[in-house]
Amino acid sequence: MSGDKARENRLDRELMQRIRRDDAAAFEQLYARYARPLMNFFYRMCYDTVAAEDYLQETFLRVWRARRTYRPVGKVSTWLFQIAKNFWLNERAKTKLRPFHEKTALIGGRDEAATELRDPRAGTSPAAAAQAGETEAAIRAAVAELSEKLRLVFVLCRYQGMAYAHAAEVLGIPLGTVKSRMAAAEKTLRDKLRPHLGDRP
Hints:
Elements: H1 3-20, H2 24-46, H3 49-65, H4 76-95, H5 112-117, H6 126-144, H7 148-159, H8 164-171, H9 175-197
Helix pairs in contact: 1-2, 2-3, 2-4, 2-7, 3-4, 4-8, 6-9, 7-9, 8-9
């Protein structure tokens, strides 16, 4: 673990120890640190901003309720994403939400996965920009159509930037399973998006 990451993890643990003692200010600090990544996680899973905001609030409510059960083992971020993941799976089982809302705007601007998968030969003309927009919309739709298992791995590793080992801890699955699911997700996306990405493998 790098020095910066080690310091971040120590700060998270210190905040959680204070939260265990009902420190509301520490809870607000933890919220400020993780609201955006958790919001993005939920948004990438459902492409519905309103639902993602509701899920974010419910997740932190569960964090507060579970504060005294927290133990300083592993990363606090892992614990938070495990709560978020479990809540998402429970909601999906209950509500059968439609996974893609095509009229919802992207959080934070451009879609990073779309940027990586898009053909680098595309220019910056209005026509190219329009084509890029269509490609990003197609990528969002394709991600939303992935199976639950593949989408969870893809969202955590690609959009959240988690290392495979960290994603394995969050999901409670072996590292090899994360790697195989990520490979399957990327192959599925490239197959579906071939008309938008050209002949690239």
